[in-house]
Amino acid sequence: MSHHYTSPIREPLVEGNKTYHDITDDIAKATEGSIKPLWLVALLVCATIGLWGILNILYTIWYGIGVWGLNKTVGWAWDITNFVWWIGIGHAGTLISAILLLFRQRWRTGVNRAAEAMTIFAVMCAAIYPGIHMGRIWLAFFIFPYPNSRGPLWVNFNSPLLWDVFAISTYFTVSLLFWYTGLLPDFATIRDRARGLRRKIYNVLAFGWTGTAKQWERFESLSLVLAGLATPLVLSVHTIVSFDFATSVIPGWHTTIFPPYFVAGAIFSGFAMVLTLMLITRKLLNLEEYITIGHIESMNKVITLTGSIVGVAYITELFIAWYSGVLYEQYAFENRIFGDYWWAYASMMTCNVISPQLFWVRKLRRSVAFTFFLSIVINIGMWFERFVIIVTSLHEDYVPSSWLYYSPTWVEVSIFVGTMGIFMTLFLLFARFFPVIAIAEVKSILKVGGDQYIAEYARQDKAEGRGWVDGSYGAAAAGMASPKSPKDADYDKH
Amino acid sequence: MQLESFTTPARVKSVGLGLLVIGLIMFVIGVLTNMDNPARIWTTLLATNHYFLLVGLAGLFFVASQTMGYNGWFVLIKRLCEAMAGYVKVGAILMIPILLFGMKYIYHWTDPHAAHDPILVGKAPYLNYGFFWLRSIIYLVGWSVFAFLIVRNSRDHDSHPGIKHYNSSLVLSAVFLLFFGVTSSTSAWDFLMSIDPHWYSTLYGWYTFISTFVASMAVVALMIIVLKSFGYLKHVTEEHLHDVGKFMFAFSVAWAYLWFSQHMLIWYANIPEETIYFRDRWENYPVLFFGTVVLNFVFPLLVLISRGAKRRIQIMFVACLVIIFGHWLDFYMMAMPGSMKAYSHTLGHDAAHHFVYPGLGLLEIGAFLTFCGLFTMVVFWELSKASLVPVNHPYIKESIIHHT
Description:
The complex is a heterodimer.
Chain A lengths: L19 H9 L8 H27 L14 H12 L2 H11 L5 H26 L26 H34 L2 H10 L7 H34 L11 H27 L8 H31 L3 H12 L3 H13 L7 H4 L2 H27 L15 H24 L5 H6 L1 H4 L1 H13 L9 H9 L13
Chain B lengths: L9 H24 L4 H31 L9 H8 L2 H19 L11 H6 L5 H31 L4 H29 L11 H26 L8 H32 L2 H13 L1 H19 L2 H4 L2 H34 L2 H5 L8 H22 L12 H5 L4
Helix pairs in contact in B: 1-15, 2-3, 2-4, 2-7, 2-8, 2-13, 2-15, 3-15, 4-6, 6-7, 7-8, 8-9, 8-13, 9-11, 10-11, 10-13, 11-13
């Protein structure tokens, strides 16, 4: 019995009979050579949109948040909707890196790097909104607790809004460290292939990594500590975001299911965004052998799971609102479904509850085009979820004379679109200058996930007459493990 | 890879039987001394039976979820979880007489006076005899049928090499998880939350589920320890125990997370209709109520956090016992206070004022031990029906060479 083994009924995680050298080549290649015109055009377009967003932020700061559509009852609208939406998107990376590690899901190595990058960029976009919605951004440092010259005026430690400050800044810090630690050996790999100034820059980025045993040992221990810290943080961030609403007594906000339901929703939207971006990236950078249909299918399953959890939560809320017998709770949900914003509720239900159920069909969850389409549908649906929670719970409050309809102004729309521009700009820069797939981690699973190895294990299993092998064996081996003739006869010696 | 047949060791049988007998004696004494308080007797039975039923069901959930997640390492302990699933039908059958005879004592909403309570009148379309029974039957029959189908399919695989049974297990698991996803919440509302019929919490269903899931992981670990000590499961190593330990640790924290979320949000918002649930428990059962947090969170957190502890048989053994008891206590605390409050109100104003809220007596401990014994006997009997090693499972070799 060899040291490595994978059941041959598993789909390969690395296709194309790759050697370790092939992996380095394929992934590092994207950071080398001249800049492609398509990338440059995309960067310019995204940066322009981002700039437009920044101009609108400056406009808001200059004139005050009166330029938004907020009114007497609706004090939070697009600002906090966008904040929660972005924070939610920033959940997939750390989940893939930390929690899927606990569940031993090896496919995470194909997408963790890009997902973590996305996490960091999404949290940066999210952080903009609480900052600007305060109105006087030059006083934003008031949110941090420190001995100050404002007399006894401290932050309110009892407020979940303050807990949010702590949660998000901790999450951002740990995610950044986790992401960057993983990048060190990969930067060194790129450095070793580079010359001149480029080599010097990547050497600095790699902290002078040389890959000695001691460095790897410390790398492993640090990764373990950071993964341990990141696991509860994945839960804590969106939990505390949900506390912002659930600690209140607003019907539709105050409900105990919010913490886990927000976390599930965040993972749901995070995976959708990972798919949206990675389906384009894998195509443009020719990474189909590293982010395989199997990877896409696994992510789609996580989407179906979290989408179903979110669906159960929606129905629970709806049922308990009726069951509670509280008039205001009942009205809040009646208003969501039949009120002025019925279209937002209907969009949310369709996009988040019904659409992920389509992935029960194997053909659909393995279709790249359909997955791409659905990932965008889910992104839209999760935006509507936050809009429904925030705006429909506020716009008709306890005093009917102050009931108002809220619509965004062009400034709010521009800021939202602008953060997408900022996000995409950062992602494009990442995709060009950073290894988008974790080179070292993919190498670490080659012997259990590479197709040529799996084909070998299939032959072994057949020779040893393993019990699952029968008439259908041929189909399993041909269709799933697809043994290809090794182009490098030495692959076993690596 | 060979089939590993299992016969329940005599010592396990006598421990199971011993627990059952001692428990029954205590329980009967408890019943005789509490004839004036039938609500206490029936609520104890309901909470205990429902707890063990759900622990067995969580074993089935674990099999189904790990099957769907293409888990390789757990294949060697799969049969233990399937044996737990074998208890579901026993718990389901026992539920029928408990509900049939005990319902009017346990559930305040069944009281004829409920017709004068405007809140309960509002809930009557959901909380009424007919619909409650219909739902109960759907849960109990549904869970038992899924347990039967999934376990049968898995056992059949042993004598039929091939991939067909594995593929069926994926389909069965997926359908079961859908059914379970809905019924695990709704059944928690019905069997437990409706004991406090005025009160409601959207998190309640998931909280109940997590509680039994941790306990089921503790049962799995305990079974591994016991079976290994009798020389069975020779391929199961400390690596497998470690992984089960990780689930125990992680989901103990997850339980605490949900406990805190539910408690803190209600405390913070301070809406009297909601806080009454916790106020009742704070004031009348402070030790037991906060004791669940110590047993189910503080203890596992401190004891199981290190890697070494999850691989040490002695530490895991103690942790398992504490967790199994702690989550039963959690169920007891979900059920008993609501039923006692309703009961005390039936005594008239003066008596209600002097009512002494029961703690853990012979009755409760007896019921717990009885069900421990019954559960042990049924699960080990189920375990002896099939090979301990699912020899034809496509991931069996992955599980054998598993190392962290």
